[in-house]
């Protein structure tokens, strides 16, 4: 990978210049990925509006193959096309030949997703949310960051594809801290949306969780039911994301690689992708393949994997590894200079029938996991996390906060021993999940 930081003014026709120039210089296959973003966050610290920033970024990635050898060069801001092409060609000569994988297509503008909101409106929402928290906890120290991000993407290649779209996302976070002589409590949550965000609802949730934490109680030790709030349930689903990755299936590292068509988790669980809903939606992936709705796990049974062009390109995979046949439209770049790799657009977890209050009322003894410290589990499913914010349930009621508590076990095993799914869902990163109640995990306190 090479980076270019200087050059002439950023040109609107830069992708065409790079495509044409690279082909003229002898490249047999060329792809240009251009991205620009504009963000204006309002930042609150210490219960006050600290600043309003404006950030703008422009970048372009040139990927080419000459004599079958791939090369990538990246430029940010103003870019000189000839220099970027020279860099990519030089990099290609250092690599081994490979078969280029490019999507074919047409010239199409997919338009805009989402709606911009004035920064003044976001500032008003931030003030109102902080005032709401301070009304209930006057000693709370609040911080927040709310922004409207507009990102424009264009992708074209030597196969005739020229796609573009604009994505507007509203989002940020809200956090409140209580500092005592012998205690420190930090409660926060993210907020994200396309056309609007409900920051007041986030503030109300923080107030409720701070109320639960006003009393500290002894934790339970041993194997007891664990209730993951929607904020924490991503710990479980991140493991399943890895298991469903077609690259991991192809390389033999996914424990579900030979489980296509088998029951692998509770039949109450259905996992799917829908690229047309929510704040994590887009019309095409970073390789120019149209995104699609996919059922990955249906009632506990593995139905499909997600793939990019390289992972799904080998015909024999369809026979030897059912569920892999071409790209699923999930080729995602980890960065401008990175090669596309399988990644989810979003992951939707089917909701259950029980509201939060009913989930709690069912439990004689349980631990609620709300915020965690450190990393979660990996593809093996083994996890061991310390609770930053957790609660104890006794006789169907939340009785207080637990400290110095660890939860460990295996995510696959826990999701086979599902007790219940909540009826209310929220976005945890790009996963739309309800609260989850499982057995089979251990609590150490």
Give a short summary of the structure.
With 445 residues, the protein is α+β, with helices and mostly antiparallel strands.
What does this entry look like structurally?
The protein is of the alpha+beta class. It folds into two domains: about 5-200, PmbA/TldD fold, CATH 3.30.2290.10; about 215-445, no CATH class. The chain contains nine helices and 25 strands. It has helices at about 15-25, 80-90, 120-135, 200-210, 235-245, 245-250, 315-320, 355-360, 410-415; strands at about 5, 30-40, 40-45, 50, 55-65, 70-75, 105-115, 140-155, 160-180, 185-195, 220-225, 225-230, 270-275, 295-300, 300, 330, 340, 345-350, 365-375, 380-395, 395-400, 405-410, 420-430, 430-440, 440-445. α1 (about 15-25) packs across α2 and α3 packs parallel to α4 (about 200-210). Mean pLDDT is about 90; it is low at about 1-10 and about 315-320.
Question: What's the overall geometry?
Answer: globular
Instruction: Please identify the structural class as seen in this structure.
Output: alpha+beta
Count of structural domains: 2
Number of helices: 9
Tell me about the biggest sheet?
Answer: 13 strands, mixed
What is the residue-mean pLDDT, rounded to a whole number? 92
Low-confidence stretches: 1-10, 315-319
